[in-house]
Amino acid sequence: GAVVSQHPSWVxxxxxxxxxxxxxxxxxxxxxxxxxxxxxxxxxxLMATSNxxxxxxxxxxxxxxxxxINHASLTLSTLTVTSAHPEDSSFYICSASFSGxxxxxxxxxxxxxxxxxx
Amino acid sequence: xxxxxxxxxTLSVQEGDxxxxxxxxxxxxxxxxxxxxxxxxxxxxxxxxxxxxxGEKKDQRIAVTLNKTAKHFSLHITETQPEDSAVYFxxxxxxxxxxxxxTFGKGTLLxxxx
Lengths: 118, 114
Description:
The complex is a heterodimer. By secondary structure, chain A is mainly β. Chain A has strands at residues 4-7, 10-13, 19-25, 32-38, 45-51, 57-58, 67-73, 76-81, 90-97, 108-109, 113-117.
């Protein structure tokens, strides 16, 4: 149980275009979804936290107008990288969690999306 | 906010030896401490976690210890095998409301030599 999927698994785009990444919880309702970015040989850096039906909370230094997050349902969150540039090339990973006495705090990670901006 | 320090950044051991990775955290209100194994290009995989009401937890060859007073926790892998080679991350859960966001350490590249 607690499976999270991401689509696409990889994407290559031209500089200046926008890219949308989907994150789905397949067998549970996610009260909260998280978006991370991971550069090569670095750790996961939290970009934003989103709760269904409300605006995302962005971490300091993350441009909310560049990284648009929509969490329209309890099973789907999307991250749109607008006007992507080569420096946005990275591994983007989502995770999901749900309120529950046993799984309190635990996050379930998607497989990640490799974005390459040419 | 929470700050998590992880050491060492690289660790090389011989097959069958033990490996220990240590982390410290800054927020005394943190109450959840997971450890993840990540292979190249893959998602982080939860290998063990511990909550602040427990001092030690073990799962076969893997154990985690938590010292709340000193604000540090450690991962212990015994009888290491080549397939244990990967990057390991510790994390701590923040205390911010219902979001439970995780703060990660910088990672430890573990290499198990046959």
